[in-house]
Design a protein that fits this description.
Layout: H1 2-11, H2 22-39, E1 47-50, H3 57-64, E2 68-73, H4 76-89, E3 93-97, E4 111-116, H5 127-139, E5 141-150, H6 157-160, E6 168-172, E7 175-186, E8 189-199, E9 203-213, H7 217-226, E10 229-235, H8 237-240, E11 246-251
Parallel strand pairs: 1-2, 1-4, 2-3, 4-5
Antiparallel strand pairs: 5-11, 6-7, 7-8, 8-9, 10-11
Helix pairs in contact: 2-3
């Protein structure tokens, strides 16, 4: 996971620049997740673990909705940024360093809801690592609790193996910011380079490298089922308004 830690450690202070309006994204994503939780019988007093919290994009918004939020990440720099932003937002969140393949090493309690949003699971570059993550997450959910995650639409991407993503162009007071990624494929794995170009009074280019694996929905569905989840459902962007497919899965009442 060193490359993942390095990626987010170096990107942490610029992560919000990937959004045209990060505070609005925080509110909008929390509203989407709140609606999904409510539709599945969870109220705003549920206890949530965001096990891939990054700079707090989902955790802060959910805490503002009234949820009791614990947030963890493998990147200490991202956690530091999330702590700062939580204070600025006036919300209370418990933060902790944790690898989501081994959550029991950090957390002894179980939660009503566990989330891992924005393509966090595909950082697992092998099926065995993904399985370890799924089992770890299942172990931190109470029976009847629900796991929620989002991933890229990998059911279509690997067919064409695109070499880059379309750029995002954000207008600023002083010019514009351009963000795009290049992807170098090796089978179902790919090396991603994230570029951020600030083209304002001066031009500055930032470059960050990471790795992912194209996890298909069928693979993740089968794996979650094998790890003690049921009622596994996929919610597509046209249904939710979120920019990636979202999966929800309920922890079986009878634990293995």
């Amino acid at each position: 996971m060193d490359i993942v830690q390095n990626f987010y450690d170096h990107l942490a202070q610029q992560y919000d620049t990937l959004y045209a309006d990060w505070p609005s994204a925080v509110r909008e994503q929390a509203e989407i997740l709140h609606r999904i939780f409510r539709e599945n019988g969870f109220s705003a007093d549920a206890q949530i673990l965001d096990c891939a919290c990054g700079i707090g994009t989902q955790a802060i918004g959910l805490a503002a909705q009234g949820y009791r939020v614990t947030a963890s990440d493998i990147s200490d720099a991202a956690l530091a940024e999330a702590r700062k932003r939580a204070v600025q937002s006036g919300v209370r969140i418990r933060f902790a360093h944790a690898d989501f393949r081994a959550l029991a090493d950090t957390f002894s309690k179980q939660f009503d809801l566990v989330i891992a949003m924005d393509n966090a699971l595909p950082h697992m570059l092998t099926h065995s690592d993904l399985e370890a993550a799924a089992r770890s997450i299942a172990g931190r959910l109470r029976p009847g609790g629900m796991f929620t995650a989002s991933i890229r639409d990998y059911d279509s991407l690997p067919e064409n193996k695109p070499a880059y993503s379309a750029p995002y162009i954000h207008k600023t007071d002083k010019g514009q910011r351009v963000c795009f990624q290049t992807w170098e494929w090796n089978g179902d794995n790919y090396r991603l380079i994230q570029y951020i170009i600030d083209d304002e009074e001066t031009t500055a280019v930032s470059r960050f490298a990471c790795e992912y694996r194209a996890v298909r929905r069928a693979e993740l569905t089968a794996l979650l089922s094998a790890c003690g989840f049921q009622d596994i459902r996929w919610h597509m962007p046209e249904e939710t308004g979120f920019f990636q497919p979202i999966v929800t899965a309920v922890r079986c009442m009878m634990q293995n």
